[in-house]
Specification:
Elements lengths: L4 H21 L18 E6 L2 E6 L2 E6 L10 H10 L6 E6 L2 E4 L4 E4 L13 H7 L9 E3 L5 H4 L15 E5 H7 L2 H6 L2 H14 L6 E4 L4 E3 L2 E5 L8 E7 L2 E5 L7 H4 L13 H17 L3 E3 L8 E7 L2 E6 L7
Parallel strand pairs: 6-7, 7-8, 8-9, 13-14
Antiparallel strand pairs: 1-2, 2-5, 3-4, 5-6, 10-11, 11-12, 12-13, 14-15, 15-16
């Protein structure tokens, strides 16, 4: 049989017809039916950086109607074209959420805490940590990259209790200074006031327990903070190094990579300083591409790791291959 689109469609139709007619024309007993599972397996993925064990833990995926202004500086039609080229729906925006867990052998470090309580397709960090064999009480360090809700809400559960009771909570000093300023809150556009209120809700009662860190410092064994300002005024990413291995943990340098890695000059609506965010993105990806560094992206498709390479005036994200062994 010649292989072409017509024969494939005809074969599919024949299979469908046979499936409908099968019980009427066959005397062979059919197997007992099994109900579809209706859900994925727990989503966590481990890899090694030197002797450190790193785990990408999925918090979920958000999908919502694509707004005309999701990318501020290009037309919606251009965004839809990029989504179609990535085989994604063109009327829906897809955003993944993937915190990173680092086991140094002596420390258990969680970078960012996700959306909070499970709600539909998001808020699944803690169930996925449990599936990975991680007790939240064993996590001794929680490091926050910036203060947007999808990174800090998981510090507390629905009852307001701290999810990581034995962990030191570390936050960027510049981020704390911005969001905890009453002057900044009072001057903020109305659309941002809810974010200021959420920061205060999350950190209420923790003010004296939070440790503030500066960008450019080693803040945990092998983990150095990198100033990646623009998305927020104090936004921080990280370089993790052990032995001869390194990974860049990029927080929100980019949102959906099919849009903003490919088109680093596009400005997502979540960036507070779009020009600074673009400059950061280009500098960060130039470094990753030049040094051929592994990159872990909070908003990359799970398991959220891969490499960045130059491609024309932008870049290309090359996902890591799944490896069954560490």
């Amino acid at each position: 049989m010649e292989l072409n689109r017509r024969t494939l469609l005809a074969s599919a139709s024949a299979v469908s017809a046979a499936a409908v007619a099968g019980p009427l024309i066959s005397s062979v007993p059919t197997a007992a039916q099994t109900a579809p599972a209706g859900k994925q397996a727990p989503a966590f993925y481990r890899y090694k950086i030197g002797s450190f064990e790193v785990t990408s833990v999925n918090d979920g995926v958000a999908r919502f109607p694509l707004a005309d202004t999701f990318v501020r500086n290009v037309k919606k039609e251009e965004v839809q074209k990029a989504l179609a080229e990535a085989y994604l729906p063109t009327d829906v925006m897809t955003i993944w959420f993937n915190p990173t867990l680092i086991n140094t052998g002596s420390r258990l470090i969680l970078i960012d805490t996700g959306m909070g309580e499970p709600k539909g397709p998001v808020g699944h960090l803690r169930p996925n940590l449990a599936a990975a064999g991680i007790d939240t009480k064993a996590i001794d360090t929680v490091i926050i990259s910036h203060f947007h809700g999808d990174h800090i809400n998981g510090i507390r559960n629905g009852a307001g209790e701290v999810n990581y009771p034995n962990a030191e909570i570390m936050v960027p000093a510049a981020e704390w200074a911005f969001w905890m300023s009453d002057d900044n809150m009072n001057k903020a556009p109305e659309a941002m006031k809810g974010a200021f209120g959420n920061v205060r809700r999350v950190f209420k009662g923790l003010e004296d327990k939070v440790k503030k860190y500066d960008a450019g410092k080693e803040i945990a064994p092998g983990l150095t903070s990198i100033a990646t300002y623009g998305h927020t005024p104090g936004h921080v990413s990280y370089a993790l190094a052990n032995g001869n291995d390194r990974v860049l943990i990029q927080s929100d340098v980019t949102n959906n990579p099919h849009l903003f890695v490919t088109n680093p000059g596009w400005h997502v609506q979540f960036d507070q300083d779009a020009a600074a965010a673009e400059a950061t993105r280009r500098k960060f990806y130039d470094m990753a591409a030049t040094d051929k560094l592994l990159v872990a992206g909070f908003h990359f498709p799970f398991p959220s790791t891969g490499h960045i390479e130059k491609a024309g005036s932008g870049y290309r994200f090359v996902p890591s291959n799944w490896n069954p062994a560490l």
